[in-house]
Design a protein that fits this description.
Blueprint: H1 2-38, H2 45-58, E1 62-68, E2 75-78, E3 88-94, E4 99-105, H3 107-157, H4 170-229, H5 237-267, E5 276-279, H6 280-298, E6 301-305, E7 310-313, H7 315-332, E8 337-345, E9 348-355, H8 362-366, H9 384-394, E10 398-404, E11 408-415, H10 432-435
Parallel strand pairs: 6-8
Antiparallel strand pairs: 1-2, 1-4, 3-4, 5-7, 8-9, 9-11, 10-11
Helix pairs in contact: 1-2, 1-3, 3-4, 4-5, 5-9, 6-7, 7-9
């Protein structure tokens, strides 16, 4: 751009001087024509000389007129004004008496040429100055930060040889560092791919381990359960009590094994969600059938809301999450009420299970989703809510609890991007207070 600007400035100066020269030649030609017209009707040399002298007086820039005749000597008429050496213009004009040569003072033309040259030089100087100023600003605003970044990267990659490379060309040094960064990124990608491969192998190995452990433990438990079921204690009350205790212990041991295996599968990353389109009523049917026996035994009234809400999720995992939360609420609310609802919030689906049971203390709420945290009055080993949290994490959602001692609890789970179809025109929030 600087070279183009200099060329444009030089071209502008040349055009200016060329225009000044053309203008001076045009003025001199007009004056020569006027002088030639003054001698058109003269009859002798004296009359011609007088006419030329008078014409020169009226034409200030023209200093001398020379009439070149074929049959006579040249007739020279001088105005008496001195001509600067090398600063005059010669114009030839044909007349009836011969060829007329006029000599015009070109001092003004020379001054205009000098002024044009100075203007061009000043313009070029300004362009060069602006270029230097812009380059200095560019170095300060762009190249200096890039150089500092290059030096920092060089110190990080080569702490021992960074000082030895100070004299290298900056662009070459930056190119070299970029090549090293590309190579470092390639090694990082390769390391990440290897780590991912190792992780997948670990998941597969853990999955096989969990399956093998489950099989090895489940078979003896099932055999023991069959053995206990076949025992006939007769009329001995002590034997009946021991047999009942054995059956209860086997049941709890089976639940503990199932819970541990479920947590192991989730922690190993062996569970992959398979989402499909469904409506909440499909989940409610299976959840109701799985909980109705316990609810009837404990006298709990379970109500279901939001069965028409469509959602896109894994039915098995979501159903398991629903079952664990509802079972927890039923066990916490003997002879009470439980409200189960699925509702939409924008593009999210929110599952809420509310009970009017004894509620939870603040300290218990902080660790209710941890392993082996047993709620008051609950049988088992405290793994149900820990597995529920892992299910929510696997489905990409959040889970939480809001409770007040003596006023019941609200367990909720929310999943972004699970809702299907456009959002409802009105809010789909449930009327909790009227339901209770």
């Amino acid at each position: 751009m600087t070279v183009v600007a200099l060329l444009l400035a030089a071209m502008l100066g040349a055009l200016h001087m060329r225009a000044a020269t053309a203008e001076a030649h045009a003025v001199a030609s007009i004056q020569a024509i006027r002088i030639a017209a003054s001698i058109a009707e003269t009859s002798n040399d004296d009359a011609t000389r007088d006419a030329l002298a008078r014409a020169l007086l009226r034409s200030a820039p023209t200093q001398e007129a020379i009439l070149h005749r074929d049959n006579a000597s040249d007739l020279v008429v001088d105005s008496g004004r001195r001509l600067a050496p090398g600063r005059h213009l010669h114009v030839w004009t044909n007349t009836d008496a011969g060829e007329l040569e006029t000599v015009t003072d070109a001092t003004a033309l020379h001054e205009r040429h000098v002024a044009g040259l100075l203007m061009t030089m000043l313009l070029c100087t300004g362009v060069v100055w602006l270029f230097a100023l812009a380059r200095r600003g560019l170095e300060r605003d762009m190249l200096a930060p890039v150089e500092r970044m290059r030096a920092r990267i060089d110190r990080i990659l080569h702490p021992r040889t960074a000082l030895e490379r100070g004299g290298d060309d900056e662009l070459h040094a930056i190119d070299r560092l970029l090549d090293e960064l590309v190579d470092l990124r390639a090694r990082h990608d390769a390391a990440m791919a290897e780590a991912l491969r190792q992780r997948l192998q670990d998941i597969a190995r853990h999955t096989r381990f969990v399956e093998q452990v489950g099989d090895h433990f489940r078979q003896p438990l099932q055999a023991l359960a069959l053995f206990v079921a076949g025992m006939q204690p007769g009329e001995d009350l002590r034997q009946r009590a021991v047999l009942g205790q054995m059956r209860s212990s086997l049941t709890r041991l089976g639940e503990l094994l199932d819970g541990l295996l479920d947590m192991a599968r989730f922690d190993a990353g062996a569970v992959e969600p398979a989402a499909v389109d469904l409506i909440a009523a499909d989940l409610f049917v299976r959840g109701r059938s799985a909980i109705e026996a316990d609810a009837a035994r404990l006298g709990v009234d379970v109500r279901w809301r939001g069965g028409r809400v469509p959602l896109h999720t894994d039915p098995a995992l979501f159903g398991e999450l629903l079952h664990r939360l509802v079972s927890n609420a039923v066990l916490s609310t003997p002879h009470g009420r439980v409200l189960v609802a699925i509702r939409r919030r924008g593009n999210a689906i929110r599952l809420e299970v509310r009970d009017n049971g004894m509620g939870l203390e603040p300290g218990m709420q902080a660790r209710v989703f941890e392993e082996f945290t047993r709620l008051p009055g609950h049988p088992g080993y405290g793994l149900a809510l820990a597995v529920a949290r892992r299910i929510a994490d696997t489905l990409g959602g959040r889970i939480g609890v809001r409770s007040s001692p003596g006023r019941g609890s609200l367990f909720w789970a929310e999943f972004e991007g699970t809702a299907i179809g456009p959002a409802a025109r009105h809010a789909a929030a449930l009327q909790w207070h009227s339901a209770w």
